[in-house]
Amino acid sequence: MLRKTYIEISRQSFCHNIAQFKKCLPPGGQLMAVVKADGYGHGAVQTALVAQAEGVAWAGVALVEEGIELRQGGVTLPILVLGAWPKEALPYFEQYQLTPTIHSPESARLLQDFAKAKGYQQPVHLKVDTGMGRIGFGPSQLFEFWEHFDSFDHLRVEGIDSHLARADEGLDEPTVTQFTRFNALIEGMDARFMPRWTHIANSSGTCDFKDFERGNLFRIGIGLYGQLPSAQLRNKPDLKQAITFKTEVVQLRDFEVNSPISYGGTWVTKRPSRIACIAVGYGDGYSRALSNRAQVLIRGQRMPVVGRVCMDLTLIDVTDFPEVCLGDQVVLIGRQGDEEILASELADIMGTINYEVCCNLSKRVPRFYLG
């Protein structure tokens, strides 16, 4: 590795976070580690292997391709494909022992016909829409499906699930309404259809709403990586950010008063200034939206980003820190000394969420797994 821009990911933090969420579970509850989008930028296979070793019951992905990657990486957990899938994916469910989600009468029929032609029973989870307004059976579609279930004799419903739309807002409603609808659907089923797994709670729903029936499988996504899903969470678990994004100082230069810095001259020196150039940019996932607004850590001190973030380089005003040297390590996300920059801090500056900050970290940045 020639350029010293890289990401460190802590196995110890994953283990700690899993333990924190286990404390939130009702008796008999189990965890699903959601590792879609390459483990929210942390590495899907590596994250899933840690979760597997820590006794998590399931891994969740969005795409069939993501499930195949886990199997090829040695993951033996049951894997649920949470998202929609095309008919071209049908052969891979049995080949790689992936459990698909059926989310509509059409997807159920496609899977039934394929499994019947191949002569096997396909385990599935059935997604219902209780208020998200996204993929999933509507209530009338669901009961129609149950009425005609005998014609889907090559499907075995192992789970039924839904998705919370606003559980991270620190309010009871409309999440309580979604729980109520979900539980009513389950209670209304014929006993012979009762699935082994019922799940609706995400990271927010797992931490909060403990007084409500929430199923027996809890899908942990952003929380697994040590990020809070929202500052409005009422019962915040003690999480450890798993990711540290590092680079180095590659140049130090002194500028006179009124010197424009970086593209467009959006920042101009107001005094004689020392500017450090660091080896990271938006090509690495350090967003251009952080220009003139974010801070980085050097020698345990916060120092401001100045000028526009470039594709490969970013500029830092180190005038007040004469001890900064060429080659000093720079932390963009993570802890250095007593200071820490969370992904959510960058998200607030960018006007987005910490999920996107982590997912946008470029593949060209090497990942190193500690522990």
From TrEMBL:
It catalyses: L-alanine = D-alanine. Substrate binds at R134, M311. Gene3D superfamilies: Alanine racemase, Lyase, Ornithine Decarboxylase, Chain A, domain 1. This is Alanine racemase. The active site is at K36, Y263. Pathway: Amino-acid biosynthesis; D-alanine biosynthesis; D-alanine from L-alanine: step 1/1. GO terms for cellular component: cytosol. InterPro entries: Ala_racemase, Ala_racemase/Decarboxylase_C, Ala_racemase_C, Ala_racemase_N, Ala_racemase_pyridoxalP-BS, PLP-binding_barrel. The modification N6-(pyridoxal phosphate)lysine is found at K36. Catalyzes the interconversion of L-alanine and D-alanine. May also act on other amino acids. Pfam families: Ala_racemase_C (PF00842), Ala_racemase_N (PF01168). Residues 242-370 form the Alanine racemase C-terminal domain. Belongs to the alanine racemase family. GO terms for molecular function: alanine racemase activity; pyridoxal phosphate binding. GO terms for biological process: D-alanine biosynthetic process. Its cofactor is pyridoxal 5'-phosphate. Coiled coil: none annotated. It comes from the Bacteria. It comes from Candidatus Lambdaproteobacteria bacterium RIFOXYD2_FULL_50_16. Keywords: Isomerase, Pyridoxal phosphate. Its EC number is 5.1.1.1.
